[in-house]
Protein backbone atom coordinates (compact mmCIF):
# COMPACT_ATOMS: atom_id res chain seq x y z
CA UNK A 1 0.00 0.00 0.00
CA UNK A 2 2.30 2.74 -1.31
CA UNK A 3 0.31 5.92 -1.62
CA UNK A 4 1.87 7.92 -4.40
CA UNK A 5 -1.18 8.01 -6.61
CA UNK A 6 -1.25 10.07 -9.75
CA UNK A 7 -4.40 8.74 -11.35
CA UNK A 8 -7.25 11.23 -11.79
CA UNK A 9 -10.07 11.11 -9.29
CA UNK A 10 -13.38 9.59 -10.42
CA UNK A 11 -15.56 12.10 -12.21
CA UNK A 12 -18.14 13.86 -10.09
CA UNK A 13 -21.29 14.33 -12.14
CA UNK A 14 -22.78 17.32 -10.36
CA UNK A 15 -22.91 19.42 -13.50
CA UNK A 16 -19.85 21.50 -12.70
CA UNK A 17 -16.13 21.23 -13.22
CA UNK A 18 -13.65 22.83 -10.90
CA UNK A 19 -10.09 23.62 -11.81
CA UNK A 20 -7.58 23.02 -9.03
CA UNK A 21 -6.97 26.22 -7.10
CA UNK A 22 -3.59 27.84 -7.34
CA UNK A 23 -2.53 26.71 -3.90
CA UNK A 24 0.97 26.72 -2.48
CA UNK A 25 2.31 24.12 -0.12
CA UNK A 26 1.77 24.95 3.53
CA UNK A 27 5.29 24.56 4.93
CA UNK A 28 6.16 23.97 8.55
CA UNK A 29 7.17 26.98 10.62
CA UNK A 30 10.18 25.03 11.82
CA UNK A 31 11.42 24.63 8.27
CA UNK A 32 10.94 28.36 7.58
CA UNK A 33 12.80 29.28 10.76
CA UNK A 34 15.72 26.92 10.11
CA UNK A 35 16.02 28.09 6.52
CA UNK A 36 16.02 31.76 7.52
CA UNK A 37 18.71 31.04 10.10
CA UNK A 38 20.91 29.59 7.38
CA UNK A 39 20.85 26.09 8.83
CA UNK A 40 19.64 22.83 7.42
CA UNK A 41 15.96 22.97 6.65
CA UNK A 42 14.03 20.72 9.01
CA UNK A 43 12.63 17.77 7.09
CA UNK A 44 8.91 17.39 7.19
CA UNK A 45 7.70 14.39 9.16
CA UNK A 46 4.36 14.51 7.36
CA UNK A 47 3.88 15.61 3.76
CA UNK A 48 0.77 15.73 1.58
CA UNK A 49 0.74 16.73 -2.08
CA UNK A 50 -2.40 17.30 -4.13
CA UNK A 51 -4.43 14.90 -1.97
CA UNK A 52 -8.02 14.28 -2.99
CA UNK A 53 -10.57 12.00 -1.33
CA UNK A 54 -13.89 11.17 -3.01
CA UNK A 55 -16.45 8.99 -1.23
CA UNK A 56 -18.61 6.97 -3.60
CA UNK A 57 -22.31 7.02 -2.65
CA UNK A 58 -23.86 4.52 -5.02
CA UNK A 59 -24.15 3.94 -8.74
CA UNK A 60 -26.73 6.65 -9.36
CA UNK A 61 -25.25 9.30 -7.09
CA UNK A 62 -22.26 11.52 -7.68
CA UNK A 63 -19.23 11.12 -5.49
CA UNK A 64 -18.81 13.21 -2.35
CA UNK A 65 -15.59 15.22 -2.44
CA UNK A 66 -14.27 15.27 1.11
CA UNK A 67 -10.78 16.65 0.36
CA UNK A 68 -9.70 18.47 -2.78
CA UNK A 69 -6.13 19.32 -3.86
CA UNK A 70 -4.77 19.44 -0.31
CA UNK A 71 -1.11 20.23 0.36
CA UNK A 72 0.48 20.23 3.80
CA UNK A 73 3.80 19.80 5.59
CA UNK A 74 4.28 19.17 9.30
CA UNK A 75 7.73 19.51 10.86
CA UNK A 76 9.51 17.05 13.13
CA UNK A 77 8.41 18.58 16.43
CA UNK A 78 5.47 20.74 15.37
CA UNK A 79 2.05 20.92 16.96
CA UNK A 80 -0.36 21.67 14.12
CA UNK A 81 -4.12 22.01 14.56
CA UNK A 82 -6.76 21.55 11.85
CA UNK A 83 -9.66 23.96 12.22
CA UNK A 84 -12.70 24.53 10.06
CA UNK A 85 -16.46 24.10 9.66
CA UNK A 86 -18.09 20.75 10.42
CA UNK A 87 -17.75 18.35 7.51
CA UNK A 88 -14.74 20.11 5.98
CA UNK A 89 -12.58 16.97 5.92
CA UNK A 90 -10.43 17.43 9.03
CA UNK A 91 -10.98 13.90 10.27
CA UNK A 92 -10.65 12.52 6.75
CA UNK A 93 -7.26 14.22 6.45
CA UNK A 94 -6.16 12.71 9.75
CA UNK A 95 -7.27 9.24 8.64
CA UNK A 96 -5.42 9.57 5.32
CA UNK A 97 -2.19 10.37 7.15
CA UNK A 98 -2.71 7.49 9.59
CA UNK A 99 -3.46 4.96 6.87
CA UNK A 100 -7.12 4.44 7.75
CA UNK A 101 -8.34 5.85 4.41
CA UNK A 102 -6.63 5.59 1.02
CA UNK A 103 -6.70 8.85 -0.96
CA UNK A 104 -8.31 8.91 -4.37
CA UNK A 105 -5.44 10.99 -5.70
CA UNK A 106 -2.19 12.48 -4.48
CA UNK A 107 0.95 11.67 -2.49
CA UNK A 108 1.29 11.11 1.24
CA UNK A 109 4.61 10.52 2.99
CA UNK A 110 5.33 10.01 6.67
CA UNK A 111 8.82 10.05 8.20
CA UNK A 112 10.31 10.15 4.71
CA UNK A 113 8.57 6.94 3.56
CA UNK A 114 5.16 5.64 2.67
CA UNK A 115 2.16 5.46 4.98
CA UNK A 116 2.37 1.67 4.85
CA UNK A 117 5.99 1.72 5.98
CA UNK A 118 5.09 4.02 8.87
CA UNK A 119 2.29 1.70 9.95
CA UNK A 120 4.58 -1.33 9.89
CA UNK A 121 6.97 0.61 12.12
CA UNK A 122 4.10 1.34 14.56
CA UNK A 123 4.73 5.04 14.00
CA UNK A 124 1.20 6.28 14.79
CA UNK A 125 -0.39 6.97 18.11
CA UNK A 126 -4.12 7.73 17.79
CA UNK A 127 -6.38 9.50 20.28
CA UNK A 128 -10.07 9.83 19.41
CA UNK A 129 -13.07 11.60 20.93
CA UNK A 130 -13.96 8.59 23.08
CA UNK A 131 -11.22 6.84 25.04
CA UNK A 132 -12.94 3.46 24.44
CA UNK A 133 -11.29 1.82 27.42
CA UNK A 134 -11.96 -1.86 28.01
CA UNK A 135 -14.26 -2.00 31.04
CA UNK A 136 -12.69 -5.18 32.47
CA UNK A 137 -9.18 -3.69 32.45
CA UNK A 138 -7.84 -1.35 35.09
CA UNK A 139 -6.25 1.98 34.13
CA UNK A 140 -2.69 0.64 33.99
CA UNK A 141 -3.79 -2.38 32.00
CA UNK A 142 -5.72 -0.21 29.53
CA UNK A 143 -2.70 2.06 29.15
CA UNK A 144 -0.55 -0.99 28.31
CA UNK A 145 -2.97 -2.38 25.72
CA UNK A 146 -1.49 -1.10 22.45
CA UNK A 147 2.06 -1.80 23.58
CA UNK A 148 1.01 -5.36 24.39
CA UNK A 149 -0.55 -5.76 20.95
CA UNK A 150 2.71 -4.64 19.32
CA UNK A 151 4.73 -7.12 21.38
CA UNK A 152 6.60 -7.60 24.63
CA UNK A 153 9.50 -5.46 23.41
CA UNK A 154 7.16 -2.45 23.25
CA UNK A 155 5.94 -2.79 26.85
CA UNK A 156 7.94 -0.48 29.10
CA UNK A 157 6.23 -0.67 32.47
CA UNK A 158 8.30 2.11 33.99
CA UNK A 159 7.56 4.45 31.08
CA UNK A 160 3.82 3.75 31.25
CA UNK A 161 3.68 4.35 35.00
CA UNK A 162 5.66 7.56 34.55
CA UNK A 163 3.22 8.77 31.86
CA UNK A 164 0.30 8.04 34.18
CA UNK A 165 2.02 10.17 36.82
CA UNK A 166 2.60 12.96 34.32
CA UNK A 167 -1.10 13.11 33.41
CA UNK A 168 -2.14 13.19 37.05
CA UNK A 169 -3.29 9.58 37.48
CA UNK A 170 -0.78 8.56 40.13
CA UNK A 171 -2.72 6.38 42.56
CA UNK A 172 -5.44 5.48 40.01
CA UNK A 173 -3.52 2.74 38.20
CA UNK A 174 -5.78 0.08 39.73
CA UNK A 175 -9.09 1.81 38.95
CA UNK A 176 -11.58 0.48 36.42
CA UNK A 177 -13.00 2.84 33.74
CA UNK A 178 -16.36 3.10 35.54
CA UNK A 179 -14.49 4.43 38.57
CA UNK A 180 -12.88 7.23 36.55
CA UNK A 181 -14.32 10.54 35.36
CA UNK A 182 -14.55 11.32 31.66
CA UNK A 183 -11.44 13.48 31.83
CA UNK A 184 -9.51 10.76 33.65
CA UNK A 185 -10.52 8.15 31.08
CA UNK A 186 -9.29 10.43 28.31
CA UNK A 187 -5.97 10.80 30.12
CA UNK A 188 -5.64 7.03 30.09
CA UNK A 189 -6.35 7.16 26.34
CA UNK A 190 -3.52 9.66 25.85
CA UNK A 191 -1.11 7.47 27.82
CA UNK A 192 -2.20 4.40 25.82
CA UNK A 193 -1.34 6.25 22.58
CA UNK A 194 2.08 7.29 23.92
CA UNK A 195 2.91 4.06 25.76
CA UNK A 196 4.89 2.52 22.88
CA UNK A 197 6.61 5.85 22.06
CA UNK A 198 5.14 6.46 18.58
CA UNK A 199 6.92 8.80 16.20
CA UNK A 200 3.70 10.64 15.21
CA UNK A 201 0.66 11.55 17.32
CA UNK A 202 -2.74 12.00 15.63
CA UNK A 203 -5.62 13.35 17.72
CA UNK A 204 -9.24 13.74 16.59
CA UNK A 205 -11.12 16.11 18.91
CA UNK A 206 -9.92 14.24 22.00
CA UNK A 207 -11.44 16.71 24.46
CA UNK A 208 -14.79 17.27 22.75
CA UNK A 209 -16.76 15.13 25.21
CA UNK A 210 -15.56 16.78 28.44
CA UNK A 211 -16.64 20.00 30.14
CA UNK A 212 -14.88 23.31 29.50
CA UNK A 213 -12.87 23.34 32.74
CA UNK A 214 -11.65 19.78 32.23
CA UNK A 215 -10.85 20.61 28.63
CA UNK A 216 -8.50 23.41 29.70
CA UNK A 217 -6.77 21.13 32.19
CA UNK A 218 -6.36 18.36 29.61
CA UNK A 219 -4.82 20.83 27.16
CA UNK A 220 -2.12 21.62 29.72
CA UNK A 221 -1.64 17.91 30.43
CA UNK A 222 -1.24 17.19 26.71
CA UNK A 223 1.40 19.88 26.24
CA UNK A 224 3.30 18.44 29.18
CA UNK A 225 3.49 14.90 27.81
CA UNK A 226 4.01 16.02 24.18
CA UNK A 227 6.98 18.21 25.20
CA UNK A 228 7.84 19.00 21.54
CA UNK A 229 9.18 15.47 21.14
CA UNK A 230 7.22 14.47 18.02
CA UNK A 231 4.92 15.91 15.33
CA UNK A 232 1.34 16.20 16.52
CA UNK A 233 -1.67 16.79 14.28
CA UNK A 234 -4.75 17.83 16.23
CA UNK A 235 -8.34 18.17 14.99
CA UNK A 236 -10.51 20.64 16.88
CA UNK A 237 -13.57 22.87 16.55
CA UNK A 238 -12.36 25.16 19.34
CA UNK A 239 -10.55 28.32 18.29
CA UNK A 240 -9.28 28.97 21.81
CA UNK A 241 -7.97 25.43 22.13
CA UNK A 242 -6.17 25.71 18.79
CA UNK A 243 -4.48 28.97 19.83
CA UNK A 244 -3.37 27.62 23.20
CA UNK A 245 -1.93 24.35 21.91
CA UNK A 246 -0.52 24.98 18.46
CA UNK A 247 2.55 26.20 16.63
CA UNK A 248 0.38 26.64 13.54
CA UNK A 249 -3.29 26.37 12.77
CA UNK A 250 -4.44 25.17 9.35
CA UNK A 251 -7.87 26.56 8.47
CA UNK A 252 -9.86 24.43 6.03
CA UNK A 253 -12.77 25.45 3.82
CA UNK A 254 -16.25 24.01 4.02
CA UNK A 255 -16.68 20.96 1.80
CA UNK A 256 -14.91 20.16 -0.35
CA UNK A 257 -12.11 20.57 2.17
CA UNK A 258 -9.08 22.53 1.09
CA UNK A 259 -6.38 24.38 2.99
CA UNK A 260 -7.52 28.00 2.99
CA UNK A 261 -5.07 29.66 5.32
CA UNK A 262 -2.19 29.05 7.71
CA UNK A 263 -2.15 31.07 10.92
CA UNK A 264 1.11 30.98 12.89
CA UNK A 265 0.79 31.06 16.68
CA UNK A 266 3.65 33.26 17.78
CA UNK A 267 3.25 32.69 21.50
CA UNK A 268 6.18 31.52 23.61
CA UNK A 269 6.47 28.05 25.06
CA UNK A 270 5.80 26.71 27.57
CA UNK A 271 2.21 27.90 27.29
CA UNK A 272 0.64 29.02 30.56
CA UNK A 273 -2.90 29.55 31.76
CA UNK A 274 -2.22 33.28 32.13
CA UNK A 275 -1.52 33.59 28.40
CA UNK A 276 -5.23 33.06 27.67
CA UNK A 277 -5.89 36.55 29.10
CA UNK A 278 -3.14 38.30 27.15
CA UNK A 279 -3.64 40.77 24.30
CA UNK A 280 -1.44 38.65 22.05
CA UNK A 281 -3.67 35.62 22.62
CA UNK A 282 -6.80 37.68 21.92
CA UNK A 283 -5.32 39.01 18.67
CA UNK A 284 -4.50 35.51 17.36
CA UNK A 285 -7.94 34.30 18.39
CA UNK A 286 -9.50 37.20 16.44
CA UNK A 287 -7.47 36.35 13.33
CA UNK A 288 -8.53 32.72 13.54
CA UNK A 289 -12.18 33.65 13.94
CA UNK A 290 -12.00 35.77 10.79
CA UNK A 291 -10.25 32.95 8.92
CA UNK A 292 -12.92 30.43 9.96
CA UNK A 293 -15.62 32.84 8.77
CA UNK A 294 -13.87 33.09 5.40
CA UNK A 295 -13.56 29.30 5.28
CA UNK A 296 -17.29 28.93 5.75
CA UNK A 297 -17.93 31.25 2.84
CA UNK A 298 -15.27 29.67 0.61
CA UNK A 299 -16.80 26.18 0.57
CA UNK A 300 -17.90 24.73 -2.72
CA UNK A 301 -20.42 21.97 -3.28
CA UNK A 302 -22.72 21.82 -0.22
CA UNK A 303 -23.74 18.20 -0.89
Give a short summary of the structure.
By secondary structure, the protein is α/β, with parallel strands linked by helices. The protein is 33% helix and 20% strand.
Note the overall shape. globular
Overall pLDDT level: 86
- Secondary-structure-based class equals alpha/beta
Q: Assembly type of the shown chains?
A: single chain
Termini Cα gap: 30 Å
Count of individual helical segments: 9
Order of helices and strands: EHEEEHEHEHHHEHEHEEH
Range of strand content: 15-25%
User: In this structure, how is the largest beta sheet organized?
Assistant: 6 strands, mixed
Strand order of the largest sheet: 6-7-8-4-9-10
CA-atom Rg in angstroms:
20 Å
> Uncertain runs with pLDDT below 50, 5 residues or more?
1-25, 30-41
- Please estimate the helix content: 25-40%
- In total, the number of strands is 10
Describe the structure.
The protein is of the alpha/beta class and 303 residues long. 33% of the residues lie in helices and 20% in strands. The chain contains nine helices and ten strands. It has helices at residues 29-36, 90-98, 115-120, 139-150, 157-166, 182-194, 212-226, 239-245, 279-298, and strands at 4-5, 44-55, 64-75, 79-83, 105-110, 124-127, 200-204, 232-235, 248-252, 259-264. Helix 4 (139-150) packs parallel to helix 6 (182-194) and helix 8 (239-245) packs across helix 9. The longest helix is centred in the last third of the chain and has 20 residues, at 279-298. 42% of the residues are buried.
Name the features.
303 residues; alpha/beta; six-stranded mixed β-sheet; four-stranded antiparallel β-sheet; 10 strands; 20% strand; globular
